Structure prediction request, 147 residues.
Amino acid sequence: MSEQRIPVDVAVGVLVERDAAGREGRFLLTSRPEGKVYAGYWEFPGGKLEAGETVEQALKRELHEELGITIGAAHPWKVEMMDYPHARVRLHFCKVYEWSGEFEMREQQRMAWDQLPVQQQPVLPGTIPVLQWFAEERGHQGPTHVG
Prediction:
């Protein structure tokens, strides 16, 4: 008999640079900090929703806490369910095109602006679907990440 695990809602920011014509370019990945599950794995930044928060509110709070930036509008993109050994999570991916402030790695994590195929490794399993969505949108052929 399998136990039912209640999913944890997580807001995830997919920060994307755009050129003058509005074409999407590089995107931001951050590493998971030491002391957290999957430490050192690369992911899109974000965090759990607190009671009463919307996805956008949680994303604004989390990215300010983790990266020291203030984001503009969060554009809901996709929702993906992931089953990790430690938790079942419902990932609410939002594209973000506008932000202000200097990036500060407040959890001693690393950051990288990357594109397909992603060079950072290892990549967190919950990040791989996003890379596949980017590949579909951008007509990218071949692997989405190294490793």
